[in-house]
Amino acid sequence: MGSLIIEGPAKLSGAVKISGSKNSALPILAATLLFDERVILENIPDLMDIHTMIEILSAARCKVIFSNGVATIDPPTNPNTDIPYELVRKMRASFNVLGPLAAKFQKASVSLPGGCSIGVRPVDYHLEGLQKLGFSTNIEHGIVTAKLEKKVDEVIISLPFPSVGATEHIMTTAAILDGTHTIIENAAMEPEIEDLAIFLNQAGCKILGAGTRRIEVFGVKKVYGCVHRIIPDRIEAGTYIIAIAATMGDALVENLNVSHLISLFDVLRSSKVNLSQICEDKVRVSMNQRPDPVKIQVTPYPGFPTDLQPQIIAFLSRAQGTSTVTETVFKSRFQHVDELRRFGARIEVSDGTAIVHGVEKLSGTQVSATDLRAAAALVIAGLMANGTTLISEVDQIFRGYEKVVEKLSSLSAVIQYRE
């Protein structure tokens, strides 16, 4: 694992262009397993997680060509439905190939998934959904096997929690169960769910209600090849917006969907960040003072996103007063707090809430990244801090941020990667 070396304090300026959404591209790539024809996906970010999913598709014997943000996927002529552990262990999103493979080829086996250590994320909702759709499931030696046993005419699947992964997995699997009417209640509403539904509908599926708490899927017999462009990455956009504000910078963030970031904008305005020139796909961010303290509750979309929680805590570490950030999605997602304290931040965690006492300045130090978004938070802290910061175990950041060193350098940050 490599390290990032940052010289601070920085004052970010200029312009940065946001890449395609990782969290949209991954389930859409998994959904290509349903197809009998070529699929072309545009605006795919060049990330470690994307390459892992491409390896999984290749392991299933799809033919995949990925170049310059475009992925071309041809279906397998001799499919493999047993996906190896060494691929699935790398990221949680890989588990979402189980349902599509089993729906398409009647049976599939996938290892239990890995990914960031940000709290308990069981696959129970996924498996319960597949069982209601007519699949039998079995877990043995860490391998999950799903087999299509029966046809179900209509099924209502009510999720105990609006899980993004479970919603995507059930929706994709149900899409090709011909003659089955599936209703998903308490579904996740994230923009990535909508993008997946748009992609599948373009290919001949019939999915209604994506982006609401109730999704209906009318299974079809066949899906057809298509071309689809992935939406911008709202978490990458939010991270750069927070970083610009945290460094009291002034910069333009381009190629984002403003409507996907309303909850973040509300928080930043409350803390006195200036957001101007807002149009459909760009926003200018500027800040000329330490932020005012705020109270934030992290909730499923359209609430404040859990994937921006570490970054906003870093930002608030220099607020003029005490802020609170309550995490309701992954209540133990505070591994980054100990590392932020090494910069001189004053943060306490109690019962799922971070109490952030703003300090006048942070000091550069040596820290270690525990997960993808924690790595982003440490980068923001390093940009804010006086002196040199060395972030080790930082390769996780390349799972979710395309060309992060180049993009920050273009915003006048002094940053380098060292293997």
Helices, strands, pairings?
Blueprint: E1 3-8, E2 13-17, H1 22-31, E3 39-42, H2 48-59, E4 63-67, E5 70-74, E6 82-83, H3 85-88, H4 98-105, E7 107-111, H5 124-132, E8 135-140, E9 143-148, E10 154-158, H6 164-174, E11 181-185, H7 191-202, E12 206-208, E13 214-218, E14 227-229, H8 234-246, E15 250-254, H9 262-270, E16 274-279, E17 282-286, E18 295-298, H10 309-316, E19 322-327, H11 335-341, E20 346-350, E21 353-357, E22 366-368, H12 372-384, E23 387-392, H13 404-410, E24 414-418
Helix pairs in contact: 1-2, 1-7, 4-6, 5-6, 6-7, 8-10, 8-12, 10-12, 11-12
Strand line-up in the sheet with most strands: 22-23-1-24
Quote the average pLDDT.
95
Question: How far apart are the first and last residues' alpha carbons, in Å?
Answer: 7 Å
- CATH topology name of the largest domain, in short, is UDP-n-acetylglucosamine1-carboxyvinyl-transferase, Chain
**Class inferred from helices and paired strands:** alpha/beta
User: What is the CATH superfamily of the largest domain?
Assistant: Enolpyruvate transferase domain
Query: What helical percentage do the residues reach?
Result: 25-40%
Major beta-sheet overview: 4 strands, mixed
Q: Detail the poorly predicted runs.
A: 115-121
Top CATH class of the largest domain: Alpha Beta
